[in-house]
């Protein structure tokens, strides 16, 4: 069982931010299909016998990289969309593995230095009454998505809700090594959500087959005290 609250304190943050208006769309897949996309050092994590891949669009706000003087304003808000799955190392430590990260800010491309699969694109997040819409197109135009969701009532998270949404480290691979980035923030305030429309080519571009079933969908207004630690090579 993963922790609902952060597993560790990030005492020295490399980046501070807010993650706002986030939707989680999770599909179940055969574990073998997802494992084929992972480095050998990581094993796909499963819940109820399935591997899960999440499409998670959101707004990055109040982003302050380490070393930015207090008098300098934070970076302007921008949209980001992750395609992610969940993994474990041999020592049992779980985390996120990103299959792709689409982002509207060129500044974030610096994270490619530790293997984060960032792609620059045109992204937007908009609200219209009781719906939230997300859209993006990767530079080159061959990978895109459109998603419209209708958030429902706040929920008291079940074990599966926590498993799908709460992870406290991200793994990447660079120069033959696994890198680990610790994450700390308050627990996600979650609500049910219904999909009003979804078109996407992200999963196919990542090399995934068709999912095993319909998606599980959550919405969160966001978390406002995000602290990302410095990426470092994971211990053997």
How would you describe this structure to a colleague?
The protein has 236 residues and is mainly β. It has one domain (15-229): Acetoacetate decarboxylase-like. Helix content is 7%, strand content 52%. It has helices at 31-35, 159-165, 202-206, and strands at residues 15-29, 43-44, 51-65, 78-88, 94-103, 118-128, 131-138, 144-154, 169-174, 177-184, 191-200, 216-228, 232-233. Strands 1, 2, 3, 4, 5, 6, 7, 8, 9, 10, 11, 12 and 13 form a 13-stranded mixed sheet that branches. A hairpin with a 2-residue loop joins strand 9 (169-174) and strand 10 (177-184).
Main β-sheet, in a few words?
13 strands, mixed
Total beta strand runs? 13
Would you state the CATH class?
Mainly Beta
What is the first-to-last residue Cα distance? 23 Å
Radius of gyration: 17 Å
């Amino acid at each position: 069982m993963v922790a609902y609250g952060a597993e560790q304190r990030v005492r020295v943050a490399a980046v501070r931010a807010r993650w706002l208006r986030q939707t989680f769309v999770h599909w179940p897949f055969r574990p073998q299909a997802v494992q084929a996309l992972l480095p050998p050092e990581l094993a796909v994590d499963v819940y109820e016998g399935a591997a899960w891949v999440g499409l998670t669009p959101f707004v990055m706000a109040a982003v302050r990289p380490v070393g930015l003087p207090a008098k300098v304003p934070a970076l302007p808000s921008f949209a980001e969309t992750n395609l992610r799955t969940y993994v474990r190392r041999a020592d049992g430590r779980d985390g996120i593995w990103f299959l792709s990260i689409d982002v509207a800010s060129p500044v974030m491309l610096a994270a490619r230095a530790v293997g984060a699969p960032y792609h620059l694109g045109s992204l937007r997040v908009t609200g219209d009454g009781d719906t939230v819409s997300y859209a993006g197109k990767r530079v080159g135009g061959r990978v895109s998505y459109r998603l419209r969701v209708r958030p429902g009532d706040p929920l008291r998270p079940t074990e599966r809700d926590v498993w799908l949404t709460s992870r406290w480290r991200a793994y990447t691979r660079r120069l033959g090594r696994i890198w680990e980035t610790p994450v700390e923030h308050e627990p996600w305030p979650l609500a049910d959500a219904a999909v009003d429309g979804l078109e996407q080519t992200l999963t196919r571009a990542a090399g995934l087959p068709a999912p095993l079933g319909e998606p599980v969908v959550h919405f969160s207004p966001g978390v406002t005290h995000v602290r990302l630690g410095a990426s470092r090579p994971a211990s053997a």
